[in-house]
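Quick check before the chapter quiz. The format below is the same one you will see on the exam, so make sure you can read both the input and the output lines.
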Amino acid sequence: MCEQCRLGEEGDVGDPSGPASPVPPCCYCCRGRLRDITTPTPALNTRRAGARVTGAVAKGSERHDTTVNERTVRGPYRTQSRAAMLALLLVFVICPATCEYVREFEVSEGVAIGTNIGYIGDSNPGQPLPPPPPYLIVPVPGSAVDSDLRIEQDTGEIKTKVVLDRELRSSYSLVAIPHSGENIRVLIKVKDENDNAPTFPSAVMNIEFPENTPRDVKRTLAPARDKDLGIFNTQRYRIVSGNVNNAFRLSSHRERDSVLYLDLQINGFLDRETTAFYSLLIEAWDGGSPPLKGSMTVNITIQDVNDNQPIFNQSRYFATVPENATIGTSVLQVLATDTDAGNNGKITYSINRRQSDRENMFQIDPKSGVISVNRPLDFETKEVHELVVVARDNGDQPLETTAFVSIRVIDVNDNQPTINLIFLSDDATPKISEDAQPGEFVARISVNDPDSKEEYANVSVTLEGGEGHFDLTTQDSIIYLMVVSRPLDRELKPNYTLVVFATDMGNPPLHASRKFDLQVTDMNDNAPEFDQTVYYANVLEVADPGTSVFQLSALDRDEGNNSVITYSIRDTPETHSNWFKIDSRTGLITTRTHVDCETEPVPQITVIATDSGSPALSSSATVKVTIRDVNDNEPIFDQSFYNVSVQESEAVANCILKV
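Here is the expected output.
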């Protein structure tokens, strides 16, 4: 036969992986001639179990096998006998006029069950009319014809059995065989409908942009995907809501995989302080009519950069403080704000000492901005203090701003005398060192009477407590100084309770009092003390190095480092102190080497206890160690040979030789 009349195309008939090229109808060029069969015909299922027939027609070395299963017989074929069927198959196999027809149908996905697709017996435009029904229907394996389509063998009508879905199956293939034995290859294509909306991979996407991101910078977003094809696929995106001040815009491009990829671009200038968060609702639309859409929420966090300097709520501050305000008294609080976030918006306050308050009369809390008194104030010395306060953020490149503070010191007027007590210790707390000499200052006491400055001299100040170790002195009856009057000893009394009384000369007199506890701080004025000056110990002569000999301890009445004791052994070779060593912390004496009773039966050790004060103090004690002898030496004559002469008249019992 000619190439066009070959049975089927090369490969499987109706390959569901894609539509086959249409085969022209029979050209009738082979009618009347024996058909040259070069490829096997498809298997024919007769729809009745058990009957399989194989026929063969040979030409040269070629062989044509045909297998029929009775289960595929439908309609009138069900009443035919097995012999009739076999005869029909033999006719089909050897019929010289056999030829192939092709019928192609299209049906839209989603049509109702039972929708007519077409008739096999009808012809496509411009093609010969296929043989009429009834037909033997042979589905291509794997094409799901039996499950999805209903084909009437008597009429050749094809209907849908289920709702078709192109996204699950795009075509169906089968072979219809009429009585005449020709093959009618049937291909049913499922047309795409807009039944799928664009779908984003996730409903919410979170991204971040620094607020100094330049315009037109892109950030790729997850694209929406649509299972439909062509115009029914994703066609466009748009921002529905949340795009405050039109800060963003969308751009898209389609690539070879037909996916419309999506980018989010900066459309203007971002400012976290104006808008710190955006929640964009983005929709994806396909090209259907009406179009379908999907949506995704894109949450955008604007990251802060340090682009704003702190700002004070006032450019100039004014405050007053009484001159008797104690150190630490709050004067006022400045406040600056920074619209940046995190460390960029965290503010640290300070006083510009180069431009103001070089005497450190005031201090400012770096976190709260509270300005407080740092040193005693004196209205008569300086009435107004001008401060330059700096507010600086904590960004990588910090920004700062300044404000001016005017503090006026006021003269306190009160009906009752007031006592301003300032302790002159290094940290302004009530304490005095025990080595303070008589006349050394402890505290500064100022007493004010609100009546008038001239009346300050009429205020009497007295001190009670202290057991005579402290006294008051003044030169102007205005400022009093508490001084040491007698030597102090912390080890005898570490604390004193004192009361300052101020009494004016009014009528009746008014008075005020101030009670405080004064701590006497330690000085290294006590050396370590042993409870004995001489200790006795013993050790065996055969003791190994490291053997414990004796442990002694000393006490230091000081406190802190002044009472931390270190032990050591004074080097005295003449008393064999090098035979021993001592633990510097515990005072445990052990043997350093082997000891020898014959060399020194009672070696002496001088132990020194040194404290950690500055300067360090020390004391010593003697440890006498008795070495208990063991029989570790054999007798030895002082010479190996003795020679003596004896007179014959020597009396009995006289000594003639000593060895």
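If your answer matched, good. The chain has two helices and 43 strands.
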